[in-house]
Design brief:
Blueprint (H helix, E strand, L loop, with lengths): L1 E3 L7 E3 L18 H29 L7 H4 L13 H25 L3 H32 L9 E3 L4 E3 L16 E2 L4 E3 L2 E3 L6 E3 L3 E4 L4 E3 L5 H34 L1 H5 L4 H26 L1
Antiparallel strand pairs: 1-2, 3-6, 4-5, 4-9, 7-8, 9-10
Helix pairs in contact: 1-5, 1-7, 3-4, 3-7, 4-5, 5-7
Amino acid sequence: MATVDTAPERVHEIDLQPGDDWNGGREPFRASYGKLMMWYFLLSDAFTFAGFLISYGALRFSSPTWPVPDFVFSTAPFGVSGAPLIFVTIMSFLLIVSSVTMVRAVQEGHRENKQGVVFWMFLTIIGGIGFLSCQAWEWTNLIGEEHMSVSTNPFGAHTIGGEYLDDETGHPYGGGAAREKFDAGDSYLIHKHMDEKTGHEEWIQRRFVAADGTTDVQQFGPKAFGALFFFITGFHGFHVFSGVAFLSIIAMNAGSGLYAARRNGYEMVEKIGLYWHFVDLVWVFVFLVFYLL
C-alpha cells in the first residue's frame, strides 16, 4: 500500500496493483526506456524517408519523360556495361546479409556470449563498409563518367519515335549511311566530349527527326532526377555510415566486457540492431523506387 500526499490536510491511499505497467514501478510496454526511445526515433525517421520518396513519386509522374533505370544503372566495375541491376543487386545483398549477422549478434548477446557478439558485429560492420564502398563507386561513375549532378541530368527518354540525323560523335551521317532509329520510350545519354580544336569539353547533343517530321535536338533529362537521386541515396548512405560508426563503438565496448558486467542481455547491441534493421528496410524502398520502377 502506497500513500500520495495530495493536500496538506488529508492523505489518500491508492492501491498499486501488481502488473500495472503505468504506475511508475514497471517499464511501459515491458520495454526499457532506451528501446522505447529508439522506436520513437525510428518512427520519426520513417516519416522523413516517406516524405522524400513520396516527393520523388510526385515529381516523376508529373514529368512527361523520365530516365529509364535499366539504362542509367547498367554499368559495374571492371568495365562491365549493359548489365542492369547487377551492381545494385550486389549492394543490396551486402546490406541484407549484414542484417542477418546483426540478428546473430543480438542472439549471442541474449546468451551473454561476449565473443559471439563481437564476431557477428564485426561481420555486420564489414557488410556496411562494403555497401558504402559500392555506393561510393556508383556515385563516382555517375558524376565522373556520366557527368550527372544535382543540377544536370544527361539521361533522358524519347517521347516519340524517329531517327537520328547525327552519329554518336555528334557528326552528321555521311551520304548513304544508315541512320539509327529509335522508338518512343528509348533511353539516350548526352555525353561530354573533348573538342580537339578548343581543348574544352562540350556536350554532344544529337539532332533527330521525329516520326511527325519535326526536327529537334536531344534535351537534357529532368533536373529533379539527379537532385533526388543524390539527396535520397546520400541521406540513406549517411544513415549507413552512422550505423557503422555506432556499431564499431558498441563492438569495442562489448569486447572490453562493459556490457557483460551489466547482465542485461547486451541490450545496447539490441538497440543498435533495431536501427540497423531499419536502415536495411528503408533501402528496400529506395531500391524499389530508383532501380526498379
